[in-house]
Specification:
Helix content is about 35%, strand content about 30%. With about 200 residues, the chain is α+β, with helices and mostly antiparallel strands. Helix 1 runs parallel beside helix 3.
Length: about 200
């Protein structure tokens, strides 16, 4: 069955490189595959997941590439919409410098992925609180996404700065606690599907 992809936002956390794409109703797009890991609380990252070629000229030890993607699901109700919002980790675009595969660095990279899930849940929350107009669904979604994504990028940079890419153990510990607390606070929006009202 064809699905409607509305937007894909991707952030290469360790590289601080951002790509933002907006797609209006493209068909036959899959969120899954062997090269992508959907965020799950019981499926933490391992170094085996970092399969991309590492760029040694960046001075960094690891790259984590995450995407936050949205698609519209088939839904027969005339007064509501159903979406799926998913945070994924791309194995082929994530990498680690050989010899630097420490537990502390892996925990740091997991934090980047977890931050992606936090903002995925915030997007679901904002969608659930929105009443869409049938003529401006794409525009309204883009506004929600851009606001969340801009904040997401800033927080990813702040995370790297304050933890010094995992080298500041005390700060990393505080971030670990804060990330888990925020995931818990947004647990209500942990399901990938989210509905919203719509009117003409």
């Amino acid at each position: 069955m064809a699905n409607n992809l509305l937007a894909v936002y991707s952030y290469t956390a360790a590289m601080r490189a951002v790509s933002l794409c907006f797609f209006a109703f493209l068909l036959c797009v899959s969120f899954s595959g062997e090269d992508k890991i959907k965020w799950k609380a019981d499926r933490p990252l391992s170094w085996k997941d970092f399969k991309g070629k590492h760029e040694t000229n960046t001075g960094l030890h690891a790259f984590t590439y995450t995407e936050i993607a949205l698609k519209m699901l088939d839904h027969e109700s005339p007064d509501s919409l159903l979406f799926e919002v998913i945070c994924t980790f791309d194995k082929t675009k994530s990498s680690v410098l050989k010899g630097k595969e420490t537990d502390s660095l892996l925990k740091h990279e997991q934090g980047h992925f977890d931050l992606g899930e936090i903002y995925t849940r915030l997007i679901r929350k904002k969608i659930s609180e929105t009443v869409f107009k049938s003529a401006t669904i794409s525009q309204q979604l883009n506004t929600i996404y851009k606001a969340c994504f801009d904040q997401y990028v800033k927080e990813q940079d702040k995370y790297d700065l304050e933890t010094d890419h995992s080298m500041n153990g005390a700060s990393q510990g505080l971030w670990n606690i804060a990330i888990q607390r925020r995931l818990k606070e947004l647990e209500k929006f942990g399901h990938t599907a989210v509905s919203a009202g719509v009117k003409k």
